Amino acid sequence: MEEVSTKPSGYKEYVAGLLAGVATVIVGHPFDTVKVKLQKHSTEVEGIKYRNGLHCTVRILATERVRRLYKGATSSFIGVAFESSLVFGIYSHTKNGPQPQVIIPSAAFGGAIISFVLCPSELVKHACNKAELLQCRMQVQGADLIVTGMFPGGSTALLRESVGNAVFFSLNTDSSDPHNLTDVGIGILTGGLGGVAFWSAVLPLDVAKTVIQTAPDKSCQRNPFQIYRRTGVRGCYAGLGPTIVRAFPANAAAIVTWKLAMKLLGIKNE
């Protein structure tokens, strides 16, 4: 019988995390596409008006086929795979036991590290979606944007990823066998619920980060608690529905793939 190692291998944990990220994009990217379509076409455009997510999906499949659901997925595969590799790898290397007092700081540390990657990449994403914002910031800030301007909302992103990953991994600590159908079902459930719990816990921070990053100038309010006072609870949970709908299947796929990869690579998940 093949011996399963309980010690970090140096790279295998990162490979397992990378595969989990690929699975996340395969399952989750179509949901992102539909969400963007719904947001962009909230009013009638060129004779098309989407009533809901299902109607939007059917129209996309009917007119543009499956490939349209994965438009722009290449960059997502690269980015999410890298981020997932980091967070799962760091978590696996720093965790030494299944106790909550070990899991929570390990997961939070992994989340804190990837926040330094996510913050500038999400800023670029926002800027690409709103070209005039980028132009405005370049005119005002000049070359400073490259150094300091790439991290507005950095502390909020760090808090979001630290808290969110601590919640996520706390719900995904079992060492189930991914070859057993019952355990696969458990992995789907815990992974999906972990994703839902992640975003339910930190969505206000994500909204605050988005507000901070899309602000036209530095004088904008950068305190997430002040943003809460201005927008209220409803504003802090803007986009909760589409986020939750995507979170369950995408994170379920990530956890099942991660555990299967760990098993195939000979690493025991404890």
From TrEMBL:
Solcar repeats lie at residues 8-97, 182-264. The keyword Transferase does not apply. One of its GO terms (cellular component) is mitochondrial membrane. SUPFAM superfamilies: Mitochondrial carrier. One of its GO terms (biological process) is mitochondrial L-ornithine transmembrane transport. It holds the Pfam family Mito_carr. It comes from Gossypium darwinii (Darwin's cotton). PANTHER family: MITOCHONDRIAL ARGININE TRANSPORTER BAC1, MITOCHONDRIAL BASIC AMINO ACIDS TRANSPORTER-RELATED. It is found in: Mitochondrion membrane. The keyword Mitochondrion applies. It is a multi-pass membrane protein. GO terms for molecular function: L-ornithine transmembrane transporter activity. This is Mitochondrial carrier protein. The chain crosses the membrane at residues 14-31, 69-91, 103-124. Belongs to the mitochondrial carrier (TC 2.A.29) family.
